[in-house]
Amino acid sequence: MKSPICEMLGIDFPLLAFSHCRDVVAAVSKAGGFGVFGATGHTPESIEVELAWIDAHCGGKPYGLDVLIPENLVTGGAKGLTSRGLAEKIPQGHRDFVDDLLSRNGVTPSPRNERPAGEPAKDSAPPFDPTNALELLEVAFRHPIKLIANALGVPPKAMLDMGKKHGVPVAALVGAKEHAIRQVEAGVDILVVQGGEAGGHCGEVSTLVLVPEVLNALKAIGAKTPVLAAGGIMNGRQMAGCMAMGAAGVWTGSVWLATTESETSEIFREKMVAATSRDTVRSKGRTGKPSRQLKSGWTQAWDGPDSPGALPMPYQTLISERALLAIEKSAATGNAAARDMVTYFVGQGVGLVDQVKSAGQVVQEFKEDFVAAYEDMTALFD
Amino acid sequence: MKSPICEMLGIDFPLLAFSHCRDVVAAVSKAGGFGVFGATGHTPESIEVELAWIDAHCGGKPYGLDVLIPENLVTGGAKGLTSRGLAEKIPQGHRDFVDDLLSRNGVTPSPRNERPAGEPAKDSAPPFDPTNALELLEVAFRHPIKLIANALGVPPKAMLDMGKKHGVPVAALVGAKEHAIRQVEAGVDILVVQGGEAGGHCGEVSTLVLVPEVLNALKAIGAKTPVLAAGGIMNGRQMAGCMAMGAAGVWTGSVWLATTESETSEIFREKMVAATSRDTVRSKGRTGKPSRQLKSGWTQAWDGPDSPGALPMPYQTLISERALLAIEKSAATGNAAARDMVTYFVGQGVGLVDQVKSAGQVVQEFKEDFVAAYEDMTALFD
Question: Per the UniProt record, which residue ranges are transmembrane (chains A, B) (predicted)?
């Protein structure tokens, strides 16, 4: 397929798949998409292990790496702090709120020294730490990565310089026209334009509106930065629709959470299949910034009248990841109240998931649906 | 163009345009789209005048009529009540809130006997009155209308029967999968599947997700009801995108508010051109149900900490329409505070409006952009 994204990334089908799971990344790239590994929570040591595994399993196909470096972080300047160090700063009222929520629902809190899901070491770097993220990138460039992405604001100059030095494009995620212009002016090579229906951190403007709005804004400043549409995209017909609007490809996330390879629990995947598009909520209760996730007893508690309110990033992540790990464990033993609280980042597209499939099959279906959409368009003019 | 909607409505290009302005309806139909006249606020007498005007100006092209009949209305059963009768039931606290808001901003309240915008007679039928809506339809069927639509829940059986009797398809607007199924089971001929980015009454799920979700649900029950995508659609590329996803056409609204023919004020059109997609809000402060409108001093007041809260439908409409009429008048005399409060129903697509054009030109550009989108898709496979 002829698209600037295909040329930049060395692929034939501009379907990018964000995942925290190395198995998904390798499977998508192998099947002809482009896997992007979410590195948040990793140390330089653990990322080396993950990328070596991907290299051995992706059939020599290209893949990328995604980091989360926020532009503003309350821990900014607090160098040398670890997750454990930060966790000690969480207010007692918030600890009590979580302890009470867990105990009322029959969930035993995780021991202090147990690592939350996705966090690789007992006393790792804190989440969203810029220094750690840049170290991860240094390690990553020892592998044949073809894209680096930042999903939380303008990438630091050091990241942009790294991309340039290695000839690897730098992508950045935006949820508003103004942010898109700022990213392009900073030197970003690819914009991931993500609508408010997306899972995880997101704005309020829908993909269908935001993508053309950003394309118009880029045109107005004479920028030719290719745009990947993101937010709500779960199949090849939606991908065709976004490319008809002018996107050079798509960036997807939620759809891979329902694959057999995914890091998600079986319980969460069952909840995905059962959910409609109205079963998600955009809430600060997971990371401290608005992020879309599956509605559950957990999200309701944080958004409810007794909530102490979300802590700023990264404290809310620290408190919620540990609790959600305990909730998942309890749910797995058959605790129905815990099962009700199980949640994860997921977009409104969860309403389009009707079964769990392999990642390779999802890529194949994207291709088939894309072609079917194009053929239907052609038939309109018969 | 080959689409079930084109066959049902006798048109070549499945672009439906909802408008409260007869000039827009006639201009769109004449240019090859399909105008749908929003009849809310009209009496049987005034609708006769409007439709006769459309007949004389649409060049013999087909058009339709849209009514708002909610499934649940707090005035249900209060037959014979007029707008004035209902207005007397508005709590004093709410009157005081509005009076104070207006006076603080230098706006003189409208005299009691002045009709609010869009309300045709001094003591007309109350808004959202089912009996009145059915009388309007009786009058409408003396004209060559080709579609009747209800934009607020399942149409009453009498409306569905009328459509059947006259051989005119009945459309209904839905914002959730479950509603779509209920509408199809009730016998609706066309579904307008409207995402949360839409202006006016809307749900929370985006167009990009809701359209395929409804199409999947229809397929699962073996229904072949054609779907019009709605919400955020302002140009032919988005229209092509929605049809690539499987929609049989599109239903549009906000884009016509920025046309020279529109009923909107010059001030509101200037605000549309200046707005980005983030300048709308989904609020109960206009009608009592969540509806998307341009953010302004008015919406901020109703959504703010001192708000008495929105009244249920139709009371909130009665109190807000009268005040907004006074606000528009004051803004037109140069009152900057009043200008700041000017608002109207509009979707996130307002961020795609960069100038005011004629309705006919908008239709023409939709066609050109649609073809351009298709050609770009074709070029992907070169």
Answer: none
